[in-house]
Each structure stands twice: as structure tokens, then as C-alpha cells.
Write a structure and sequence with these properties.
The complex is a heterodimer of chains A (639) and B (105). Chain A has 639 residues and is mainly alpha-helical. Chain A is built from 24 helices and six strands. Chain B has 105 residues and is mostly helical. In chain B, helix 1 (7-27) runs antiparallel to helix 2 and helix 2 packs antiparallel against helix 3 (62-92). The chains are: A mainly alpha (639), B mainly alpha (105).
């Protein structure tokens, strides 16, 4: 099998699985559907790993530098001589990395769902949607031009919508699905405009030629709008698309609600893969951002840092286990964005870029682990609320261990995976922007606090009250992914990541400063200690603290009222000042015109309908008069 | 005085027949009488065919054939029309044309 065939099979197999499972969902027995989907996903994963490791170790390097390569290209729409839209596959370090992450996490979720969803009657549809998502996500990360990326971008949005709304009998799930779709659609509109501008400026849609064009001759920008060059606008608009998908402030409101979907879906889409598509997008165009728009990139860093802090603050006050994980996902994506924001192009200054993707990689592992553990816990307790849990340590030993590993990893305790990636981010931030550095440092402490608050209240505390432990932790299909991901979360930090992924393809040797990492680790430990302190102390202490925090606590618990602000803006302002006048114009002017035409036709017909009297002899008489008239005309005017 | 009948004589008769038929069709209220008027109109046309055939193209038979066709079709038409009239009678208990006004607006 050649490389080209193999690469085409990687998105091809999930597409095939989607079509088969989707078209014959009613005919396939449930257990076959799950098994078939998982086996096909397994084949895809093997191929992806083969291609990714092959790229990193064998054919990707030329003279020690990783080169982007296009193993497959199909000329699809030649619009003009200059501009054509192709369908191709681009293989470079970040797409090889994402290839591995997406297919691996997807396989884990496929295996896990076999047990988690086994009582669901629409499991074939569920697996079809999972396959559709995997196909779209793999296509997204390997897209060779930005328009192709946009197509797959919308496809992942669609499959996210379908999976959030999988329990369509639940009104909350339907609302959440619509919310996710609409919010990301608005962001994608910005992205589409950005793509149009950038293709006009760059005379191409292909990533490689776009990057060449803007990094070699950044002065040839033709237009400005509101005093800002059009390229800046394009990049900012593309970033808005990425921010919508990656749930950055203020477009984050859909992600917590998206937790209405099945938990394995949250693990795959809303934690590990789809939500980092925004990070991937910025990373894909990174040389353009870093060289042509460094100010904008810094702005992205600030947005990321703010989101990280903001989401962490909200996470401290929530009580729904999946929502806490969702806010922590937002916070970690904020980390990745801020790391990109403090990075520059090339060599040492590209540390942030490497750190960001490293964090993306480790985060995918430990956050998928945390979500799958949460799924196992919810499966056991039948509730999402923290207060219904507690004392599960003895009852669910494997889940407990895996969840603890995930918490330690996200808190950045050595030697778990999150420690290494977070250290690199902090180091990059410290070298470039002190303000972002302190924000992210504080957020690291908060992260440890809220994750261990969650951990203690699930597994410790009172003995578990309800005695309906009719099932254990879940079968081997549920435990296997937890164990594999747990091992990954422990060991992924030791991968020499900088050697493989860097901003310019040259290996980046990261210098590891032991002294630098003391402070963040101490902060994280302090966060854990505070969580433990509040937890094992009497309830009164918690209440006094909450009272002392007063307004801040209430505001954070209310998620800073962002949803309410959106409600206010849409319902009160847009509906009243734009929608209502528009509705008036529609009802009175446009409908009025159409109605007037209809009414005049009706009244005219009412007046002339008497001609049709039903009297045959009258018809015949009129006919005769007509014929005679025509005959007279013919006789006198024939010539 | 012997009067050799010519084309004009025949055309005069057929015209008269035609207008008698039209008059009957427009004024009679009985559907069967109206049907008979239609037969008059058709026969005036037949007479025209025969007359033109005989006086203008005596060597050909087109007009004669056409007349035979018209007679055949008129028979069929009469059968259909009488069936309709019978049905109207069953519905209305009358064959007065002024009472068959269901096709009004």
C-alpha cells in the first residue's frame, strides 16, 4: 500500500462507516453496529499512527527540517487562472500530531461507548454520528487549503450539533444543540469573510502558498478598512471563527450547555478534539500571524489568558461534574491560545508554539480520561450533581485511580503529562509577557483547586448513600480506555515533543529549568491543600469563606451572567429595535403589497364571473356572434 | 321551364338548413330538440361537401368520403349525447336546458 492510498483510507474508512451505519441503522443489530464501528475505527487508528510515526521518524525530514508535504492533490474547482480550490492532503508536524490525537481518542471513545451506550436503542445512529465526526475531524486536520478546511470545519460543527442533540427527547439537549450550532455559525460567518479576504490578498487558498506569500512579502497589502489593513481584518475574522469553535470568551456560552450530549461525546468532541480546532487553525496559519500580524497575535494571547482565568473562576463555583470539566476545558484551551499568543516565529521564540501544541496533546489525553471517568461515575450514580456523590473511592477503585491521575495531570504535578506542557507554556509566557505569565500562574493554582474540590467530593467524604450497586464499575470495555488513557497521562510528558513539533520545522530543544518550575508546582500544591482543607473542615468554614467572598462568589456562580447578557442583547435590544421594525415592514409593506395584488385579482374576478352563467345556449350565442364577427373581418379585411 | 339545379341552389339550401339548425339550437329549451338541431347543422355541412364534390371536382371522391365519416361520427355523437341527456333526466327529472346550470361559477 502506498502512502497516498493509506492517507486516503484514513478519512475514507470513517466515511464508509458513517454511510453504512447511517443508511442501515434500522437493519443492523445493535451490538454488531457498535462492534463494526469500533473495528473500522481501529483500522483507521492503526493507519493514522503508521502515517504519523512514519512522518516523524522516516519520510518527513529533509536535512533535519520537517517539510510540509502534499501526498494527494485533486484539482477541484479552477475558478480563475490565479485562484483555484483544490482538495488535497497536507502532511506536516501539526497535522501528523492531530492525526494521531484524533484517531486515538476517537478509538478510545468508540470502545468506551460500546459499554456506556449498550442500552441505547439508537446505538447504530450514535456510531454513525461518531464516524461522521471522526471523518470530518480527520479531514479538517489534513486539509491542504483553507477552503477545504472550512468545509470540514462546518462538518464537525454539524456532527457536534447532531451528537449534542442525540437525546432529542430531552428539551435541554435540543436547546443546547441549537445554541452550540447558532453560536458557532455566527463565528464561522466571520471566518468565511476572513477566508474570502485572505484569498483575495494572498491570491491563493493553499496553506503553503498563502504562508509563502505573506511571510516573504508582507508589504503588498492592497486595502484598508477603518484604518486597519485588510490582512489584519482577515486574520482577526479567521481568529473569531477559531474562537467560536474553541469556546473562547465571549463565544464560550455554548460549551457548558453542550454537556447535555452523551458523556463519551463530551470526551471526544467537547474536550479533546473539536474544541481545539481553533488552536489548530491558528497554529496552521501561525507563520502568517507571527510575521504579518504580531500585534494581533498578542491580542489572541490576551483573549486566551482572560478566558483561562475567567473559566477557572467559574469552575470553582459550579456543582455539576460535567460542567466543571467543561469550564476546565475552556480554561485549558485558553492556555493553548495564550501560548500561541506569546510565541514568535522560528527557533527559540517559537517555544510558545511548541508548548501550545504539546498542551493540546497532553490535554487531549488527560481531559478525555477525566470525561470518561466522569461518564463511569455518572453511570454508577445516575446523577451529574456533585452533592449526590461521595465516598466512591472503595466502590470504584480503577475509576478513582484514573481520575486522580487526570486531576494530577491537569493540576500540573510532576511527573504527570500536564506538568511538562504547562511548564513550557509558563516559560514561554514568562519570557515574553509578564502580565500573561502571572495570570496563567494564578490560573494554574485555581485549576488545581477546583479539580481537587471535584475529586474530594466525588471520592471521599461520606460513605455512598444509595445502595443500589446492581452493577460494578462497568465492564472491561469501559475500563480499558480509562487504563490506556491513564497510562498516556502519566507518560506523555516524557515525549521529546520539541524535537518533532516546532514553529519552523527545526527541532527545538527545550531547556528544562528546575528552579523555574518550583513556583507553579508549589501554587498547584497550595491549591490542592486549600481544596483538601475546605473539604475536611466543617461545612461552616466553607460558608464563611463564601460569605466573605460575597458578590464575587455569586457572580462567578452565575457564570458572570454572560448568558443573561446575551439574552438581554438578543431579546431586548435586537428583537425590539431590529426584529420588530423588520417584522412590521414585512407584515405591512411586503405582505401588504402581495395581499393587495391578490385582493384586486379577487375583486376583478368577482365582477366578471357573471359571464360564466352555466347557460349553454348563451355560450352558443356568444360563440356564434364571435364566429360571425370573425367571418365578417375575414371577408372585408382579408387582403 | 326546367330548372337544372346548380351549385348555388344546393348552397342556398344548406345555408338555410344551417341557420334553421342554429336557430333551433339557440331557442329550443328541450335538450333532445337541441340535439336534433345539431343534426341539422351537421347535415347542412354534409350537403356542402357533396355539392362541392359534385360541381368542382367531379372526378374525385373526397367529399363523399368525408360525408360518410361525418355521418358515422354524428351517429356516435348522438349516442353519447343521448346517454348524457338520460343522465341529466335522472338527476333533474327534466330535460329542460335552463335547469341544467350546475356548471355555473
Amino acid at each position: 500500500m502506498t502512502l497516498q492510498q493509506m492517507i486516503l483510507l484514513i478519512p475514507g474508512i470513517p466515511l464508509f462507516a458513517f454511510l453504512m451505519l447511517g443508511l442501515f441503522s434500522k437493519k443492523i443489530p445493535c451490538n454488531y453496529a457498535a462492534t463494526a464501528g469500533t473495528i473500522l475505527m481501529g483500522v483507521t487508528t492503526v493507519l493514522s499512527c503508521f502515517v504519523a510515526f512514519g512522518y516523524f521518524t522516516a519520510f518527513g525530514k529533509i536535512d533535519g527540517i520537517y517539510q510540509p508535504m502534499i501526498p494527494f492533490l485533486y484539482h477541484w474547482l479552477p475558478l480563475t487562472d490565479l485562484l483555484e480550490i483544490n482538495m488535497g492532503i497536507l502532511l506536516d508536524p501539526i497535522s501528523a500530531l492531530m492525526l494521531f490525537v484524533v484517531s486515538f481518542i476517537s478509538l478510545m471513545v468508540h470502545i468506551y461507548s460500546m459499554a456506556y451506550m449498550k442500552d441505547e436503542s439508537r446505538i447504530a445512529v450514535y456510531y454513525a454520528f461518531l464516524s461522521l465526526f471522526t471523518f470530518a475531524m480527520l479531514g479538517l486536520v489534513m486539509a491542504s487549503n483553507i477552503f477545504q478546511l472550512y468545509i470540514f470545519w462546518e462538518l464537525v460543527g454539524l456532527s457536534s450539533f447532531l451528537l449534542i442533540g442525540f437525546y432529542y427527547q430531552k428539551p435541554a439537549a435540543v436547546r443546547a444543540a441549537k445554541k452550540a450550532f447558532i453560536v458557532t455559525r455566527f463565528a464561522d460567518l466571520g471566518m468565511l469573510i476572513g477566508i474570502l479576504i485572505i484569498s483575495y490578498e494572498g491570491k491563493s487558498l493553499d496553506f503553503i502558498s498563502l504562508i509563502d506569500h505573506f511571510t516573504n512579502s508582507p508589504q503588498q497589502i492592497s486595502g484598508t478598512f477603518l484604518g486597519i489593513a485588510s490582512l489584519q481584518w482577515a486574520l482577526a475574522l479567521i481568529f473569531i471563527g477559531g474562537a467560536g469553535k474553541s469556546a473562547l470568551f465571549p463565544l464560550h456560552i455554548w460549551l457548558p450547555d453542550a454537556m447535555e450530549g452523551p458523556t463519551p461525546v463530551s470526551a471526544l468532541i467537547h474536550a479533546a478534539t473539536m474544541v481545539v480546532a481553533g488552536v489548530f487553525l491558528i497554529a496552521r496559519l501561525f507563520p502568517v500571524y507571527a510575521i504579518a500580524a504580531p500585534d494581533l497575535l498578542q491580542g489572541i494571547g490576551y483573549v486566551g489568558a482572560f478566558t483561562a482565568l475567567f473559566a477557572a473562576l467559574i469552575a470553582c463555583t459550579q456543582t455539576d461534574i460535567k460542567r466543571i470539566l467543561a469550564y476546565s476545558t475552556m480554561s485549558q484551551i485558553g492556555y493553548m491560545m495564550l501560548a500561541l499568543g506569546v510565541a514568535g516565529y522560528g527557533a527559540e521564540s517559537g517555544l510558545g508554539f511548541t508548548a501550545s501544541l504539546f498542551h493540546l496533546f497532553t490535554h487531549a489525553l488527560f481531559k478525555a480520561l477525566l470525561f470518561l471517568c466522569a461518564g463511569a461515575i455518572i453511570h454508577f450514580v445516575h446523577s451529574n450533581e456533585m452533592r449526590d456523590m461521595g465516598g466512591l473511592k472503595k466502590l470504584m477503585p480503577i475509576t478513582h485511580l484514573c481520575f486522580l491521575i487526570g486531576c494530577l495531570a491537569i493540576a500540573g504535578i510532576p511527573p504527570f503529562a500536564g506538568f511538562f506542557s504547562k511548564e513550557e507554556i509558563l516559560l514561554a509566557a514568562c519570557q515574553h509577557n509578564r502580565m500573561i505569565y502571572f495570570v496563567s500562574l494564578f490560573t494554574a493554582g485555581l485549576t488545581a483547586f477546583y479539580m481537587f474540590r471535584l475529586y474530594f467530593s466525588i471520592f471521599w467524604n461520606k460513605p455512598f448513600q444509595q445502595h443500589h450497586s446492581h452493577h460494578g464499575e462497568g465492564g472491561p470495555a469501559m475500563m480499558l480506555p480509562l487504563i490506556v488513557l491513564g497510562i498516556g497521562s502519566v507518560s506523555a510528558g516524557f515525549i521529546p515533543f520539541g524535537k518533532w513539533v516546532s514553529s519552523d520545522g527545526r527541532p527545538l530543544i527545550s531547556h528544562f529549568h528546575l528552579s523555574f518550575s518550583i513556583l507553579p508546582v508549589l501554587l498547584s500544591l497550595a491549591g490542592i491543600a486549600i481544596a483538601a482543607f475546605y473539604f475536611f473542615e466543617k461545612k461552616k468554614t466553607v460558608e464563611t469563606t463564601v460569605n466573605a467572598m460575597g458578590g464575587l462568589f455569586r457572580v462567578a456562580k452565575g457564570k458572570f451572567y454572560i448568558d443573561e447578557i446575551y439574552q438581554f442583547v438578543t431579546k431586548k435590544i435586537i428583537f425590539n429595535f431590529i426584529a420588530k421594525p423588520a417584522a412590521w415592514i414585512d407584515k405591512n409593506l411586503i405582505d401588504g403589497l402581495v395581499n393587495a395584488m391578490g385582493n384586486s385579482t379577487v375583486s376583478l374576478s368577482n365582477q366578471i364571473k357573471g359571464i360564466q352563467s352555466g347557460k349553454i345556449q348563451m355560450y352558443a350565442g356568444i360563440f356564434l356572434i364571435g364566429v360571425i364577427g370573425l367571418a365578417i373581418l375575414a371577408i372585408y379585411y382579408w387582403n | 321551364m326546367t330548372l337544372e339545379p346548380g351549385l348555388y341552389h344546393l348552397l342556398t339550401i344548406s345555408t338555410g338548413l344551417f341557420f334553421i339548425g342554429v336557430y333551433g339550437f339557440l331557442t329550443r329549451k328541450n335538450l333532445v330538440t337541441m340535439l336534433m338541431s345539431i343534426e341539422l347543422i351537421l347535415n347542412s355541412v354534409n350537403l356542402n361537401f357533396i355539392a362541392f364534390n359534385k360541381y368542382l371536382w367531379p372526378h374525385r371522391l373526397d367529399g363523399v368520403f368525408f360525408t360518410l365519416f361525418v355521418i358515422a361520427i354524428a351517429a356516435a355523437e348522438a349516442a353519447v349525447a343521448i346517454a348524457i341527456v338520460i343522465n341529466i333526466y335522472r338527476n333533474n327529472r327534466s330535460i329542460n336546458v335552463e335547469q341544467t346550470e350546475e356548471m355555473k361559477y
